[in-house]
Every structure is written in structure tokens, then in C-alpha cells.
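Protein in question passed on here:
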Amino acid sequence: KKEKGKSMQLLRAIGFFHGNILLFCVTTGVGIFVSPKGVLKYSSLNIAVSLSIWAACAVLTMITALSLAEMGTTFPRSGAPYYFLKRSLGSSVAFLSLWIKLFTYPLGIATQSLIISTYLIQPFYTRCPAPELLKKCLALATLWSLGLLNARGVLTVAWFQTISILVKMAVLCFISFTGIVLIGIGKKENVARFEKAFDAELPGVSQIAEAFLQGLFAYSGTSVLINIAGEIKNPGENIPKSLITVLPTVAVIYVLVNISYLAVLTPQEIISTDAVAVTWMDKVIPSMQWVISFGISTSIVSNMCCTILSASRLFYTASQEGQLPLIFSMLNNYFSPTVAITQIIILASFLIISSDLINLIKYSGLATWVLRGLYMIGLLKLRYQEPNLPRPYK
């Protein structure tokens, strides 16, 4: 039936403005509030090395993101990375990538849920760690609430992000500005650790690799526009423009935020806490600790919402291509793949119940960059096999 055929298609409802909002929200979420601990730990507490790794991660992310932009503009459809792998490297590789992402997406979502609950609860337990059961219950409640929000469609998610970005920008700008002021004042304790930054022990090669995985996790999510390319207006123009506009801005903010952390906290203090920003606020303005916790949690919620959106489109496309049951491509009245969203939420719930935060980040980051390596191979192969394929962006 005509109405039935219409209901199976996603709508192109996201323009340049909302595309920028979604990209900024998903790349400035969980990572900057948790990865500094891992980067510094595996940098052997060497401040110069850790800041260099943050900058290198930004450059590498920009290169891979712009390569992914070629993929999304050449095949402007939702779940573009999956479809692209099937077209360039074959059904077997695409199927393998699907099953990797079947676990990595819930891994990332579970990680974000736990970090949200940690930041919300920790201010009430200033002298001891928060109970694990309480954190997990709050994480599950947040997870299912965002699943219901995603079921309302992509435009509802985009408007939710437009509101939450104001809170996110306020938090990041406050942390960055405060750190610059503290260094500018020239207090001995704030400047001393930067003066001795190059005197610290250098990490080994394996430690640097671990630090890169932690840092790259903070930049994960840059493929959100590629995954929803079928819902973006004029994707050949808007996707590259959004990446070139947003990612350099994010990179600068990340470096400033890390400098601010280091201006207030010692490396030992940073690696001893899972809630770096809350510990930072406790040193700067202790009475306002709950404000920063709420702001950071709101920020991570918006990131998590985008991740669920992105993951559901992958399952939707794989279902249409016959590699998942057809039920995953069924849409509700809001043109949202509700069954795919529900599956993601259920898998993430299991991971929340039995989890370790640092290992979740490590495994998620490793799998993500294995897949990005496959995308680069596929791009080169398709350039050779189909040189005349229309490519709005190279």
C-alpha cells in the first residue's frame, strides 16, 4: 500500500544548523569528562606527553572524519558506513562490522550511562565512593528515558540537543576560562607543574598506544552525520561543512579544558577519580559542586541521545539490506525505528549491570578504530575500482 511504502522511508529533516548541533553535542560529551584520567595515567603522568596526545588525537580524528565525509556524501543514506563496506569490501566484511557495532554501540552507551549516574550521585558522597547499586539503577533509568525520547523521531532529538547545548557550552567555557585565569594570575602552585612538564618520565610505546585509545574515545561520535546521512538535507554540502566547522572548535576546547584540569589538580589527583570535573570544581568553588555535576550530566545525556540515534540507523539499514530481521527496519508514526532502538537499550542495560568503566572505554575505542581502518581501506579500493563514481566531496 502507498501509506505502508511511505512509512518505510526515513525523512530528510536535518539541515545545516541542526546538523552542527548534533555533531557538536556528540563529540563534546562523555569523553572530555572521563578520558583525561586514562590519557594521563598511560602517559606516565607526563603533562607534556598527555597534552601532545590530545592534540594528535584531534588531528587524526579530523583526517578520518573528512574521509568518512566522502563516504557519507557518495552514499547519502542512513547507515552509510555499513552500506559502504558492503559495496566496497563485500557482504562478509559488512556483516562483520555489523556484529562489531552490535556490541560497541551498547558498550559506549553503557559507559555514558554510568558516567552520568556517577556525576549526579558523587556530590552526595563527598567522603566516600557512591554505592555501585545506586549508580547502576540511575544509569538504567536514564538509558530507558532516552530510548523513549528517540522513539519520538529525529527532529525531537535535534530540538532536545539545541536546548542541551546551551548547558554544555556553559560548562566547557567555564572550565576553560577558569583555567586560563588561574594560569594568568601566575600562582606558584598553578604554574609549577607546567614548568616541569618536560622533566617527567616518558611512557613506553604500549603506554602511548593505550593513551591514544583513551584520547580517541573523547572524539568518538564524529560519524553521527554519516550514520544519519539519509535524514540530512543536501548531504553533499552540509556534511563536510559541519565537520570542518565543528571539529577544530572541539579540538581547541578539549586542549583548554585539559590545561584547566592540570592548572588546578595534580596528575595524581586526576588519575585517582572517575569524576575529574567534579573533583576540579571541589578545588575551585566547593559550594558549586552540584551545579557542575548537573551541567556535566546534562551534557553527557545529549551525547548519549545522539549515540542511540546513530546506532538505531545502522540496525535499520542492515535490516533493509537483509542482514538483520526485517522487523528492525519498521518505523513508527514518528518515522523512528523503534524496534532497533529497543534492541540497543536492552543490550546496553545488560552491560550496565556488569561493568568496569576503564575497560569499557578501552574495548569500545579499540573496536571503533578497527572499523575506521576498514573504512579507509574501502575508500581506497573504491577509488580504484570505480573512479567515475560521483563524489560530491573528496
Notes: The radius of gyration is 21 Å. Residues 16-382 form a domain with the Amino acid/polyamine transporter I fold (CATH 1.20.1740.10).
